[in-house]
């Protein structure tokens, strides 16, 4: 199903994901010019992304969305640092059996075999073993 129009009651209801979707939803028309296959229409205040002014509006909304994501990450980082300072935040709990991974590796098993036996990714096995494989 193709997205043709996105209707929102207000600009505040749009998230960065919706704006990214609209910015990425571009195509070339028959003369090679870039055209948007989907359009945004905001009811209050009345805003539309059709036409040249719409392209500018979409660009500005995209910038605002990126700023919003940045602000959220900054607040999250500050909250984590404050929790660490209080000794409350300890990170994600360990879910893998490190001893079993190391034991299987000592027995000559490769990362793929270990990952299948444990039920995790090879990257997780490499991380436990302290090996950097890119």
Brief descriptors of the model:
134 residues, 15% strand, two-stranded antiparallel ribbon, 2 domains, alpha+beta, 5 strands
Structure, explained:
This protein folds into two domains: 5-86, no CATH class; 98-129. It contains five helices and five strands. It has a three-stranded mixed sheet. The chain has a two-stranded antiparallel sheet with strand order 2-3. The model has no long low-confidence stretch (mean pLDDT 76). It has 134 residues and is of the alpha+beta class. The longest helix has 36 residues, at 51-86. It is 52% helix and 15% strand. It starts with a strand and ends in a 5-residue tail after the last helix.
